[in-house]
Amino acid sequence: MTPDLSTQYLGLRLRSPLVPSSGPPTADVDSLKRLEAAGAGAVVLPSLFAEQVQSEGLTLVNYLIRAKEQYVEAASYLPEPEEFRIGAENYAELVRQAKRGLSIPVIASLNASVPGRWLASADEIERAGADALELNLYHLAADPAITGSAVEGSDLEVVRAVCARVKIPVAVKLNPFYSAIAHMAASCAAAGARGLVLFNRFYQPDIDLDRLEVRPTVNLSASRDLTLPLRWTAILRGRVAASLALTGGVHSGQDALKALLAGADAAMMCSELIQNGPRGLARALESLRAWMSARGYESVEQLKGSLSHEHCPDPEAFERAQYIKAVSGYHVSALT
Ligand SMILES: Cc1cc2nc3c(=O)[nH]c(=O)nc-3n(C[C@H](O)[C@H](O)[C@H](O)COP(=O)(O)O)c2cc1C
Asked: Does residue 253's CB lie within 6 angstroms of at least one atom of ligand 1?
């Protein structure tokens, strides 16, 4: 029997749990159509940044230029940077085009850190027909004078402002650096968020030793990056009244299965699609389907969360803060 791959996310029914996350692969309608054809359950459009921070390399355009330079393979299917200088004025148009061209849900994305005039674009996005809105709280708490609770309070103000503004479901893309992630997650849900996306990945600068300068870098993930969002997905599943999407390190069907078993409603992909295009998603979906059939799973709903904190036989394994057990079992065969 072919397993039913559909899943509920943000109150929407997705035909599959694999969702291209916000980033270059979802920046134009042609690539969106190819991702739909490859089996995506929904798509998250690139973020509209509240402030167009061109100079710091935070914008998608700059990301894209670097992705194309660093990953030669990507050059063939990622759009040209000038093709999608996404400004407030044409973001709604991208949403409209995506809605016209696709039959899967289209999730728009706003990237912000404080409430401001940009909030009006949430209305525009809703009017343009987006099925949901992802709010990326891109905020680096770099000021030593600002406390953790002040950071959380200000982030929650943004969540509340957006959720009060639109009727479509809002998901909040959190970063993993809050001191009390579970409390922050619950507070987002209390502020009106219907979903949480775990986790936001910050752009990480590097240092160029030849030029003695700080170099912006596009760090694509690998499957080993999955463990952080996996742990928090498992911990939050069933404890927070919100849908959960996992993003970070999903490159294969196995990675997606782990996400689902931990309790994610959707497994999002970006780096894999930058590296391998829609083929990467099709392959992951096929191996997910094959694994489910081989194990006799009838549906994604059936396996979702079965190894979450509340259901797994050793829940402590997710919470164990001290790692004596793990490191004491680690043997180095030979040091040269
Ligand atoms: C080049 C690039 C651009 C991205 N742009 C955005 C963005 O505009 N908005 C956003 O919320 N996330 C953005 N992301 C983050 C991805 O959506 C995703 O959460 C992150 O890369 C982790 O998933 P992955 O391991 O599948 O890459 C971007 C990531 C990359 C690599």
From this structure: no
**Minimum-distance ligand 1 atom for the alpha carbon of 49:** 8
Q: Quick one: pLDDT at residue 66? A: 52
Closest ligand 1 atom to Cα of 225: 25
Please give the distance, rounded to the nearest whole angstrom, from the Cα atom of residue 23 to the centre of ligand 1.
Answer: 5
Q: Examine the pLDDT at 213 and tell me if it is beyond 90.
A: yes
The predicted pLDDT at position 68 comes to: 54
Threshold 0.85, pTM exceeds:
yes
Neighbours of 18 (CB within 10 A): 29
256 lines ligand 1 (CB under 6 A): no
**Cα Rg for the chain, rounded, in angstroms?**
20
Judged against a pLDDT cut of 70, whether residue 63 lies above it is answered with no
The pLDDT score that the predictor gives to residue 263 is 97
CA dist., res. 334 & res. 296, Å (int): 43
Cβ burial, residue 312 (10 Å; 0-12/13-18/19+) = middle
Give the bridge partners for 155, in sequence order.
none
Signed CA dihedral, 21, 26, 29, 33: sign only: negative
Query: Given this model, what pLDDT does residue 216 score?
Result: 78
Retrieve residue 166's tokens: 């639109």
Nearest to 106 by CA among 43, 23, 64, 194: 43
Measured by CA distance, the residue closest to atom 5 of ligand 1 is 23
Q: For the residues 3-12, what does the mean pLDDT come to?
A: 98
Paired with 216 in beta bridges are 205
Domains of the chain, CATH where assigned: 7-328 (3.20.20.70)
Ligand 1 lined by 173 (C-beta under 6 Å):
yes
Residues 262 and 230 sit within 8 Å (Cβ to Cβ): yes
pLDDT of residue 149: 94
From ligand 1's centre to the CA of 250, what distance in Å? 12
**Mean pLDDT of all residues in the chain?**
87
Q: Yes or no: say if 237 and 187 are a contact pair by the CB < 8 Å rule.
A: no
Question: 65 pLDDT exceeds 80?
Answer: no
Q: In which residue are the tokens 């409390």 written?
A: 183
